[in-house]
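User: Sequence recovery, please. Input:
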């Protein structure tokens, strides 16, 4: 009889297996690389063309979208990345008006932030998610046991799961185009295609300097804030904006990385062979508490006219 990962969990109750493997990984922090690659997204440059979504779909060989990448009505409702779309662009109307008194939209591309100290990697009891030297938080399907702790742990609600696949379901998220950026001169598909250079790829420290210079040189155009510089300990993807981030669906997260707390609890629990279900609930509680007041996309319709 062929045993699926899900079936394995049902039969064994998971706790024993998880406890064994967890000792090897649970206490290990994913070390933050000194100067990883990153992407700077300049929201003042994004025109909402969704070519980045299209490119991401192609370079990752994802299924065709239900509605075309050229269909502008897709922007009428906020979306989240999922197992079939590693990145999505949402449209907001935060209140600015142009010379003709028309509301001016701001477009926001979202994907995995590739955190410097990723909570998903810390929550993963088998080391299937790791922060790589080049900045990517990389997923190794051959290690994954389908526990989905990473989905609970992620403060940005990014990882998705192939629930529709009963045999070989995977956790799905932006790969940071790991293979492409591992080659000299390689660019993420989305950054390469962007017609307005709203996405700049480079070393994180360089991008921070670029962001600060743009803000300093254009104080009337930008707010004095870089989302991702400090959030959850810093992220490889960062944003600059003309509009407060809280009006654009950005999640209000603490500067302190969440992994350490999750790791401590995880390690303690497995030391006493507590059930992963208990851990799942506790991790969920930690992440929920650390998120603060976060608007759900479906609750933001009032901002989008
Ligand atoms: S390709 Fe560039 S301009 Fe177009 S939606 Fe994506 S980030 Fe914005
Ligand atoms: S955004 Fe979420 S999935 Fe991506 S690296 Fe950070 S914790 Fe992991
Ligand atoms: S970095 Fe690669 S996987 Fe991530 S959103 Fe861009 S194209 Fe998609």
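Assistant: Recovered sequence (305 residues):
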């Amino acid at each position: 009889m062929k045993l699926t990962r899900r079936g394995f969990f049902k039969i064994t109750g998971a706790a024993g297996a998880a406890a064994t493997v967890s000792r090897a990984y649970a206490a290990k922090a994913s070390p933050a690389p000194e100067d990883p690659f990153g992407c700077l997204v300049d929201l003042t440059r994004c025109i909402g063309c969704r070519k980045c979504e299209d490119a991401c779909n192609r370079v990752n060989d994802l299924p065709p979208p239900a509605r075309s990448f050229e269909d502008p009505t897709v922007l009428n409702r906020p979306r989240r990345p999922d197992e079939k779309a590693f990145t999505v662009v949402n449209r907001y109307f935060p209140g600015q008006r142009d010379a003709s008194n028309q509301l001016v939209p701001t477009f926001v591309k979202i994907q995995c932030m590739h955190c410097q100290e990723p909570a998903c990697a810390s929550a993963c009891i088998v080391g299937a998610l790791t922060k790589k030297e080049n900045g990517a938080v990389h997923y190794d399907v051959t290690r994954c046991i389908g526990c989905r702790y990473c989905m609970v742990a992620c403060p940005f609600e990014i990882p998705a799961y192939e629930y529709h696949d009963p045999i070989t379901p995977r956790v799905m998220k932006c790969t940071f185009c790991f293979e492409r950026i591992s080659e000299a001169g390689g660019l993420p598909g989305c950054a390469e295609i962007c017609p307005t250079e709203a996405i700049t790829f480079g070393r994180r420290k360089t991008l921070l300097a670029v962001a600060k210079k743009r803000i300093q040189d254009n104080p009337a155009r930008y707010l004095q804030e870089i989302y991702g510089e400090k959030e959850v300990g810093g992220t490889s993807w960062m944003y600059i904006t003309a509009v407060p981030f809280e009006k654009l669906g950005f999640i209000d997260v603490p500067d302190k990385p969440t992994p350490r707390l999750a790791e401590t609890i995880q390690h303690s629990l497995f030391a006493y062979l507590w059930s992963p279900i208990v851990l799942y609930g506790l991790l969920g509680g930690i992440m929920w508490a650390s998120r603060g007041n976060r608007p759900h996309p479906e609750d933001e319709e009032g901002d989008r006219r």
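The radius of gyration is 20 Å.
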